[in-house]
Amino acid sequence: MKKATLALCVLCTVIFSYVKADQKIRTVTFWTFASNNCEELKRRKTEIEQKFNINLQIEFMAQNTFVQKLQLVMMDQQGIPDIIEWMIESNRILSKDPEKSFVMPLNRFIAKSSIKNNISTGRSSLVTYGGNIYGLPHDAHPVVMIYNDTVWKNAGVDVAKIETWDEFFEKAKLLRKLDENGKPKHFALPSSEMGLGDSMYMMWQQTGAQILTKDGRPNLNSYEFKNFVKKWSNWEKSGAMTTWDWGNFQQLIKDGTYASYISPDWWVSQTDAAANEGKYQFNVRSLPLYKRGIKTGSSWGGSFLAIPKGTKDADFIFNIMQYIQYDNSALEARYTETEMLPPVKSFWNNNVLDFQDPRFGGQKIRRLQADSAKILMPITTGDIFWELISIFSDNYRSYTSGKLSFDEMINNSQQDGMETYKSFFENNN
Predict the structure, then answer these.
(1) Which fold has domain 2-141+301-362?
(2) For each of the chain's 429 residues, which pLDDT tens digit applies?
(3) Are 159 and 147 contacting, i.e. CB atoms less than 8 angstroms apart?
(4) CB 194 within 8 Å of CB 389
(5) 38, 173, 331, 334: least buried by Cβ within 10 Å?
(6) Are residues 106 and 226 in contact, defined by beta-carbon separation less than 8 angstroms?
(7) For residue 188, which of 157, 143, 142, 163 has the smallest C-alpha distance?
(8) Distance CA 58, CA 39 (A)
(9) CB 157 within 8 A of CB 176
(10) Within the chain, which residue ranges are assigned CATH 3.40.190.10?
(11) What residues pair up with 26 in beta bridges, in sequence order?
């Protein structure tokens, strides 16, 4: 009888211990639109679960449904994910008013975090609205110039010695060789002709010209921005640029049509096929200066992690999110695999960046990218930031097609921006 009682007690203890242990395991849900980052997270899933004693559920979803689904769960207050990953250049989930934002400000968590002074402000500015930081950037995506040294040298130009963009486009006139059909064989840069996108977007960041004021109002008629647009339009009119062709980009590099292009880290691989072919020598350099003597950088693309409002145990979740995004060992492994530079300043001293890239004659492109990341220009963002870019781009196309004068294009952009600004805040108050 005593043995039976003892056995029963042991069994109860085991059951109780199991239940108690099981209760400690929290399910943490993670939503992402980024397939590459999702695969990396899946590979680290067991490691993360063991470190934090959690059950990590990862859900990948298409971009076109992500925000809609997030809106629905936020409205119902049911099924709210703990962590989300979304596009840094099309957020639609942030607001300068924390009450209207889908995700919570991270200021208080970051203030007592080890990453407080270790994240590039040039990247964190893209997720900072009204003084609140809403996300942890996944990457820095610094921009450098990749150029066909053979084509440029045949035109008598050493691109490495060019200091400014004005000088670059002046030298680009020497590229104007015609083929047997009387069409230009080479162009200095690809451009989407869509206004503030692609090459124009990357170059604009170098200027420091802000399209929003500090309080989130349109600033498209500022002297600095108008001056940049005028310069850009003149460079475009010079014939130095041609259409940015996403589908045929690699081929246009291989045949020398694009004599150079400005590229974030995730687009460098477009040179691979041409470099392997060996017909041309490709080199890399930092971006020419917008203003002589003033070094500024640029970035393009990326994502960020954030915590939706309503998530329980936000301090605990932030620690998990920070670990996922910035753990030192994970950073090096991620970079080795993707060659996408983290926004973590301490990582920019890593020896892995000293790799001599055979695609560019042994040049250290990774080091050049890190140097660019150090001088990224902070961008003033706000609730209508991306809408404002679209508004300007529409008016810019009307200008280039001859429907609007330069001043009309600028004035219309500012007026349309103000209407959007007023409408947004009227509808959200």
Answers:
(1) D-Maltodextrin-Binding Protein; domain 2 (3.40.190)
(2) 434 333 333 333 333 333 344 457 899 999 999 888 899 999 999 999 999 999 999 999 998 899 899 989 988 888 999 999 998 877 778 888 888 889 999 999 999 998 989 999 999 999 998 889 999 999 999 999 999 999 999 999 999 999 999 999 999 999 988 677 778 899 999 997 777 888 999 999 999 999 999 888 999 999 999 999 999 999 999 999 999 999 999 999 999 999 999 999 999 999 999 999 999 999 999 999 999 999 999 999 999 999 999 899 999 999 999 999 999 888 998 998 889 999 999 999 999 999 999 999 999 999 999 999 999 999 988 888 989 999 999 999 999 999 999 999 999 999 999 999 998 876 665
(3) yes
(4) no
(5) 173
(6) no
(7) 157
(8) 10
(9) no
(10) 2-141+301-362, 143-298+384-427
(11) 54
Report d(CA 76, CA 149) in Å as an integer: 58
Asked if residue 73 lies in contact with residue 79, where contact means CB atoms within 8 angstroms, the answer is yes
With CA atoms as reference, report the closest residue to 284 among 402, 159, 397, 170.
Answer: 159
Q: Rounded to an integer, what distance in angstroms lies between the CA atom of residue 385 and that of residue 93?
A: 12
* Superfamily for the 143-298+384-427 domain: Periplasmic binding protein-like II (3.40.190.10)
